[in-house]
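Let's do one together. I've listed all components of the complex below, 888 residues spread over two lines.
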Amino acid sequence: MDKITLTIDGRQISVPPGTTVLGAARLLGINIPTLCHLADLTPEGCCRVCLVEVAGLRSLTTACTHPAAEGMVVRTDTPDIREARQMVVEMLLANHPADCLTCQSNLRCELQRLALDLGVRDIRFRGERRHYELDDSNPFIIRDNEKCVLCGRCVRVCKEIQVCNVLEWTERGFVSKVTPAFDSGMDQSACVFCGTCVSACPTGALTEKPMYGTGLPEKKVKTTCPFCGVGCNFDLNVKDGKIIGVTSNETSAVNGRLLCVKGRFGTDYVHSPERLTSPLIKKNGEFAPASWDEALGLVAEKLAGIKAAHGPDAIAALSSARCTNEENYLLQKFMRAAVGTNNVDHCART
Amino acid sequence: MAGLATSFGSGAMTNSIGEIADNEVMFVIGANPPEAHPVIGAKMRQALAKGARLIVADPRKTELAAAAHVWLRLRPGTDVALINGLLHIIIKNGWHDGAFIAKCTTGFDAVAAVAAKYPPDLVEKITGVAAHLLYEAAKMYATAGRAGIFYTLGITEHTCGTDNVMSLANLAMLTGNVGKPSAGVNPLRGQNNVQGACDMGALPNVLPGYQQVKWPDIRKKFSAAWGAEVPEKPGHTLPDMFDAAVRGDLKAMFIMGEDPVLSDANAHHVRKGLESLDFLVCQNLFLTETAKLADVVLPAASFAEKEGTFTNTERRVQRVRQAIEPIGGSRPDWMIICELATRFGYPMAYAAPEEIMAEIAALTPSYAGVTYPRIEENGLQWPVPAADHPGTQFLHEDGQFTCGLGYFQPIDYEPPAEVPDDEYPLLLTTGRILYHYNVSTHRHAKHLTAHRPEERVMVHPADAAALGLTEGDTAQVSSRRGSVRAKAWVTDAVPPGVVWMSFHFPDTPTNEITSGAYDKVTKTYEYKVCAVRVEVGQ
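Okay, and this is what the predicted structure of the assembly comes out as:
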């Protein structure tokens, strides 16, 4: 299909039909702030933060929903635009708890970032505030509707990606809010706690309960989930040598931002107090801690003795569908090349 | 995997997860993705939202069964009869793909002859599925342009598991639904690295890449690379190991990362086998029920504490990256094996798992092009036969099967090994719930455990009424092998006569009572069918 050529901030670009003004601007490396927009969701244009000026239109328009057109001339950074964006964020802040310093999303909040980037200082609007109960009904997700900016990202991930349709708009006007059916706690809803809504929330309205009070991660390490065979990738959030939680990594080939309750909230088993921390040798029916040297020496000696007395086929190994490829490879190599038997199997042979 | 390997020449998911949302028809049989493979469940819901049609064969009213356009509520263990019934209807109505069958397959006539023996009224008698539903399902599947079959252990964990799989392969070949996107025969692997453990030759009859131990040139290749003679005689399968231990032929076992006492069927027999050994070593994160029987326990590091790769259900080799140091004195399994081998007189020295992968790639044709730099971002789907090969999104393109022609296998229905009788009148089938993972999350994953702390046994309201059992009562579930207790969950998600349990909870070790019968080819246990009695417990 023919490409469309438009001009943004005096620079020309050609894009395929269907591209939005926002998409075209990003191709040019022009930053237009957004809030309700996520690349993997249907554009909604409800937050008005991405307002731009399109020549010939009576008013500013939302770049995330406005399709690029041939010959279109767009400006993204004028005093009017800056003023309009600032006002949008100011109005959001006017009805938002001012507890940034103690908020779980402090320093990762997109609303906070927008206020900073747009230079919002005074909140000129004073009026009624929303007051809602905190939904703390389940072990996984805390829902704080007072911090909701009604961007609808959670509603759209639940509808378009996880396709559970648990979160939805309710009420109208000032009392509009996002809730599960019948305004219940999430534990009473059909929610399966995949937490994809949390990954999409720009503020502290939806947060991971197990990550409360753990602070910011020092690093995030992308890895593959240890549970089922889907092979989702995610980021392990690490602080002080501990995993403090799991967050979506949208670059994941298989799953994008999607995860399930196990992947997102189940890896704390790694830090179970019941983890073995030392080799154990059974003496007189009781386990006693031993050094690696002692334990591996004993294993090698016993296996060698049994091989000498009864032949290699008197020894067998179970490998594991939980371990890595490299480990499975080494164990079968050990059995075949070192012990000299094909007695190696694992439980998931089906 | 033996079933698919026989029919298609490759025992793996033919297609990719990313293709699911574009399926026209999904036939889900013996699988419950929203709970056991939740992200695949989400992709299936995406497909439904885009207008895909869904056929579900399951005795339980699962989420997908409730959302299905056609739900085939078959009696557990009657899958072969059901699938032969579908073949029968498709052939009779001429909905099969004659050109594909002629060009790409062999053995059709024998399958047609078997299918002829399964008219809908007979199938209805065996499976309990009404003939008109069978007809709807056959038409929906056979007349779609892109229809994919998805199954898991509900198909394989039967004495006839291999037969079930080959029957599904017959269905896909009959309709030409192999070798194109958003179609195929797709086993969803249950654990993070089942595919990889199989690929790596952690199996008694094959070396890495399914290269047969029995082939002399293959043994020669590996013997040369490893500097040690690879033995010719195939090894014991897992159930055979416990039998051999009880007989006294097997003296020592090394168990890495598994807990067969909790996870294998007929736990009593497993325990007896392990107790008969002279020497047992377990390498695990926890002191599992199996490890408690060991002479030496070696503390292993978790996935977050080591480097490596997992291969997912769609054959994608992906990186596992170290995020934290090994906990306490634990060590990564690969390091432990290297050290042990070296002490055993067979030095193994690798600076890092990346070097091990290089050795795997050199010896395994399907992994030949896999290197850590190449899989850094998105992984690679095998086969990756060369360093410049982009990987393979779906197998058997244009009906070019790995084994040349696809093999139709005539399969007759055989009933499960143990069926309900007067003494044990109910049928127990087992599976997973969303909130737990096999036997490793309960208690150790505290948020999941807080949400789902204990086992619940699903009982149909009619059975519950007859037993005097109400919701939340403790139920005693007994089979010929033992007895366990769990809270009753009275629900019509199970049909009358069937009870359902998971196997996640050490306090309710369901596999104490499951059947030790297994498939004749793969020796996979029949977890999915056994006869039980339910009573009100104290």
